[in-house]
Amino acid sequence: MKTELIYELVATAMQELITEPWTIAELNIRYLASSHEAECDGTYLDASGEAQVLSTDFPDEVLEALPFLFVNRTNDGNPPTNSVQMTVSAQGRFAVDYEWDQEIEDEDEHFSKGGTVKEWLKIRQEKYGYTPE
Question: pLDDT at residue 3 above 70?
Fold first, then answer.
């Protein structure tokens, strides 16, 4: 699936999931290369400017397309990435920002080798200097 079509699918799905007046929404997508899956979370600002949790209960078509944002990018000759933030306005304009996040890669590798949550939390504290809330 072409990248532009994926952007349109995601932006439309985000707009459809927000059921109240809003101004801007951000979706954070993380790519787990070991399983060729993507996971996401997001927020949006309602009409009064308050941050709200964005539902990520996207249709299967959208969820299945997300990993291809990263695959397509690499296939097009760009450096590998494993994180993208998509910002969508209520008017339908959007922007995307790709990054490489070593913590995502380390976590993916740890769990793909059968590591436990307890082990990961220790590694995360030692390597990245913080603990879960």
Answer: yes
Q: Structure tokens of 101?
A: 């996040």
Architecture of domain 3-100: 2-Layer Sandwich (3.30)
To 5 degrees, how large is the angle CA 69–CA 70–CA 71? Answer: 100
Q: How far apart are CA 14 and CA 92, in angstroms?
A: 10
Rounded to the nearest 5°, which phi and psi values hold at 79? Answer: -60, 150
Q: Which residues have CB under 8 Å from 22's CB, separation 6+?
A: 44, 45, 46, 47, 52, 90
What integer best gives the mean pLDDT of the chain? Answer: 93
pLDDT 10s digits, 29-43: 999 988 889 999 999
In the chain, domain spans: 3-100, 101-133
Q: How does pLDDT run across 81-126, given as a tens digit for each residue?
A: 999 999 999 998 999 999 998 988 888 888 889 989 999 888 888 8
Beta strands in 2-133 (DSSP E): 22-32, 37-46, 51-53, 83-89, 94-99
CA–CA separation, 90 vs 47, rounded Å? 10
